[in-house]
Amino acid sequence: MTMPIDMRSDTVTRPTPEMRQAIAAAEVGDDMSGEDPTVNRLEARMAEMLGKEAAVFACSATQANQMAVRTHCIPGDELLIESTGHIALFEAGGPAALSGVTCRLLNGQYGILDLIDFEGKIRADNQHFCRTRLVCLENTTNVGGGRVYPLENLTRIGQWARRHGLKVHLDGARLFNAVVASRVSAADICRAADTVTVCFSKGLGCPMGAVLAGTQEDMARARRVRKLFGGALRQAGIVAAAALYALDHHIERLETDHANARAFAAAIADIAGLTVDPPDVQTNLVFFNVARSLGNAAQLSAKLKQHHVLINASGPQRLRACTHLDVDRAAVLRAAQIVRESVAAGFADLPGSATGPYARG
Ligand SMILES: *Cc1c(COP(=O)(O)O)cnc(C)c1O
Asked: Ligand 1 test: best mutation among 8, 136, 137, 202, most atoms within 8 Å of CB?
């Protein structure tokens, strides 16, 4: 059996032998009683790295994001988010289902917002309206295009939000990709946000886990919410040990993923009928569009799969390729060659819907 080159997501990474050793050696206790030393160490370390007072370990970034929404909002409140935001699109309607919160979608550029996009978006204090309460930002952007939020935008939006009594939550599922790509510290990136989510099971290569960080007061609330949402665990040090290992060994190497993503993008950029979009690849996500005359994205994805390259459609004519720990430079260049051959051979005859859905972590 040929092993596929799996570029669907950085979530497909498996723990390395060294990470498994760290997991096996983890010192554990009952975390729900605050007695897991490894979880406590991870929470303290993340709080410090992110420049926040406290952090709470969560099962997933989805759970951490939803804990943040519930911590900041009450039923009837509204949050503002870019139209491609994960919290609004890919968390199973969490804000509505778990917190009674509506999402107001704002149109940005590749998932990035600036002050102009917020103009007129705070609802008046009036019984007819929901209460605008929270701004959710995503760094790096996912469906937006793997972009790093410019620090000036974060600062401007943060100051504006504070002035208007709004809270800011930063969905930093891929925060360390932004840190490595921009060489700005995590604490500086997070300064404008009240709460921050970081995911360990994306590019950091852990089997599971995330953290939410913020003030002591907000984290006390978030801890109650975590229990309510079924995320309070017992010997969670087993997985927190993987996260601590990743903080030591898997952050700097994200630069390799970024270089591989740029190499992949460069290798497919001149294929007639394909357009890399955004053309300048900043992190580990490469989005590219396929001309309608060739077929649709699902059909190209099906063609690539026949040749053991896994890249998913992320829109009718759009695909997303992701680099990570388990694909090296040779694999990425081989995948690019197979994209080239697949386009040359044609793929419009293959089954593949051009209507989605296109969920992707
Ligand atoms: C993947 C992702 C999440 C959710 O992460 P899980 O740990 O899979 O729940 C949240 N936000 C963004 C931007 C993501 O890319």
From this structure: 202
